[in-house]
Amino acid sequence: MAAFAQSAPCWADVQLPDLEAGKRFYGGLFGWTFHAGDGMPFADAYSDGKLVAALAGKRDGRMPTAWGVYFSTDDIAATVALVRRSGGQVITDPVPAGRAGVLAQAADPGGAVFGLWQAGERAGFEKRNAPGSFCWTEVRTRRPERVDPFYEEVLGFRGTDTGPPADGTVPFRMWSPAGTEPGEDTAVGGREVLGDDVPEMLPSHFLSYFAVADCDRTAGTAVHLGGRIPSPPADTPYGRTAVLQDDQGAVFAVLQPNGRLP
């Protein structure tokens, strides 16, 4: 079992109304194969025989259809206590997931939801930063003045700003785990500010990225499978990226890295 550094993103899953439809979409998009949970409405996803994510059927229709990301912690009870002390909200107190580990869910002061994972027999991703697997996550928020210190306190992140941009808005911030030198080489996630051009109805959220070999082809395949392209392929300093939506409404991003992936 490969261990994850404290506060590193270690897992991602998606909550879907129709689990079987989700398997068809992501199997067709990323080439994932699946192993269903014993009597449970979820399926582990594999790429090249290695764990990369999970799909879960929603038990409550009021739950959002969305991808979630989990951060590793060595002491989930202590991290949950920090969430409360730092102005966040605990949505799900620590609960065992069999022998795999212990999970909790929380929201930051801007309302973005994330998960915490204390590993048992399962550390998390068995493959990442390679085509068909998770490679990056960023919180998109309207409240950086509250969110930045929250993640520094709760997860021990240390930030590196990439700006300031020419228009004077808040620069993008990369997060590096405690004990590392902040910068692109150590970053595990980021923070982006939602601008005035983003509808107010869109809440703060985490956007997770999956690496692909060809961004444009993947975007085209998503549409062929019934999905949408909220943000079409575009070049960035780290590669070509697009924001996609699956055929049930869950939003995620893909990145064709150019070798500069943190």
TrEMBL record:
This is VOC family protein. It comes from Streptomyces nitrosporeus. InterPro entries: Anthracycline_SecMetBiosynth (IPR052164), Glyas_Bleomycin-R_OHBP_Dase (IPR029068), Glyas_Fos-R_dOase_dom (IPR004360), VOC_core (IPR037523). It comes from the Bacteria. Residues 8-119, 133-257 form the VOC domain. PROSITE patterns: VOC (PS51819). Pfam families: Glyoxalase. SUPFAM superfamilies: Glyoxalase/Bleomycin resistance protein/Dihydroxybiphenyl dioxygenase (SSF54593).
